[in-house]
UniProtKB/TrEMBL annotation:
Similarity comment: Belongs to the leucine-binding protein family.
Species in which this protein is naturally found: Sedimentitalea xiamensis
Protein name: ABC transporter substrate-binding protein
SUPFAM superfamilies cross-referenced by the UniProt entry: Periplasmic binding protein-like I
Domain of life: Bacteria
Organism classification: Bacteria, Pseudomonadati, Pseudomonadota, Alphaproteobacteria, Rhodobacterales
Signal peptide interval: 1-20
Gene3D superfamilies in the record: 3.40.50.2300
KW Signal (keyword) present: yes
Recorded coiled-coil stretches: none
InterPro entries membership: Leu-bd (IPR028081), Peripla_BP_I (IPR028082)
Keywords tagged on the record: Signal
UniProt keyword Signal present: yes
A family per Pfam: Peripla_BP_6
Leucine-binding protein domain location: 29-378
């Protein structure tokens, strides 16, 4: 009789809502995780992205949350180091038991964290990297925010060939999964005979002297450099080129260089032209007069005390917006499966990012547009939109 009673109690507990509960979800809370570079070479993306996402979640929470649940965004710093990213993911997924991951920064960092996300099907939403691996190979839990580095670089180089005289391209890249994406796009164009390929130079994340590398670029006779470096490295390398008298050399940056800090930093060093980029979102500065943008900028300033949101904040707000929209669409009975189904129904204009968010069961890349830009007098100016 005691054994029968014990088995009955055990069966009752196993079937209880408590043990069947979705990780990171209670009646009053949804826990979301984020592994960021708050102290490394891409901190200008992560730091404001976190501020913007938290500010938006605070606003949502103040209005009652999503179906009565408040959003808690738990953030860990990996400093753009892969081992620390793995440690961060382990903490967030296995100790904090977050429902989903949002805005994780870095290509190699995300790939390392996938090893823990995949077995549990933890949704990875709008990572701050445009590597194709964020959605390829396809997996139900992978959701990218914008068009890929690969697509954007190919579009930018094609534009520069047609309009800016680009014929021979050298590469200055971090030899990581991030840099390899830019390398692959340029190689494909070269293999097709669209451009000529010059020197290919790998750099360390902490490298700061680019004189030798630029000498190799000059010796190769390149008119354009495809660049995949850290934020301060890009500014340093381009400024060095101009100091060396390489005034006609053009620079093509991936979306990792399409940042307000880059445009303003180069202008402060006297570099006001010859720098191009392509990304899956539009620069904020030129759209400050749009009502939705102006409203968000005012809210961001009030919430953070900062003067200007900038690119990282734009991506943070865009990603947080996708997360909230999907949580709302998933309804009160929230599971990872219902969230994924809801993500696949999203279709709206993101006025902050300036792109169109559109997922489906077959397409987990939110925005497909590519925006080609050039720095002019310290600001990014849109040259062409490719849909």
């Amino acid at each position: 009789m005691k054994l029968l009673k014990s088995l009955t109690i055990a069966a009752s507990i196993a079937a209880s809502p408590l043990l069947a509960q979705t990780p990171g979800v209670t009646d009053t809370e949804i826990k979301i995780g984020g592994a960021h570079d708050l102290s490394g070479i891409f901190a200008p993306f992560s730091v404001p992205a976190v501020s913007a996402a938290k500010a938006y979640f605070d606003q949502v929470n103040a209005n009652g949350g999503v179906h009565g649940r408040k959003i808690t965004y738990i953030v860990e710093d990996h400093g753009y180091q892969v081992p620390k990213a793995a440690q961060a993911a382990n903490k967030l997924i296995n100790r904090d038991e977050v429902f989903a991951m949002l805005l994780n920064l870095g290509t190699p960092q995300n790939l390392a964290m996938f090893q823990m996300m995949e077995p549990q099907g933890v949704p990875n939403v709008s990572p701050i990297t445009a590597a194709r691996q964020m959605v390829e190979p396809f997996a139900p839990w992978k959701f990218a925010g914008t068009s890929s580095y690969y697509a954007a670089v190919k579009a930018a180089i094609a534009f520069m060939k047609e309009n800016e005289g680009t014929r021979k391209v050298c590469l200055m890249i971090l030899p990581t999964d991030f840099g390899k994406e830019i390398e692959a796009a340029v190689h494909e164009l070269a293999d097709a005979g669209d451009i000529e390929l010059g020197a290919e130079i790998g750099h360390k994340p902490d490298e700061s002297d680019f004189t030798g590398a630029l000498g190799k670029v000059k010796d190769s006779g390149c008119d354009t450099v495809g660049m995949a470096l850290g934020i301060s490295q890009m500014i340093n390398a381009i400024t060095t080129a101009r100091k060396l008298g390489m005034d006609d050399l053009k620079f093509m940056l991936s979306s990792a260089g399409f940042h307000t800090v880059v445009a303003k930093g180069l202008a402060a060093q006297g570099v006001t032209d010859g720098v191009y980029s392509a990304a899956g979102w539009q620069d904020l500065e030129a759209r400050l007069g749009e009502p939705e943008v102006a409203e968000w900028v005012a809210q961001y300033k009030a919430a953070t005390g900062e003067d200007y949101p900038g690119t990282g904040a734009l991506l943070g707000r865009a990603g947080a917006g996708i997360m909230v929209a999907a949580l709302e669409a998933a309804g009160p009975d929230l599971t990872r499966e219902s969230f994924i189904r809801a993500m696949e129904t999203l279709d709206y204009e993101d006025k902050i990012a300036g792109n169109h968010v559109d997922f489906s069961a077959e397409d987990h890349e939110a925005a497909d547009e590519v925006f080609v830009n050039r720095i002019e007098n310290g600001s990014w100016v849109l040259l062409q939109t490719i849909e």
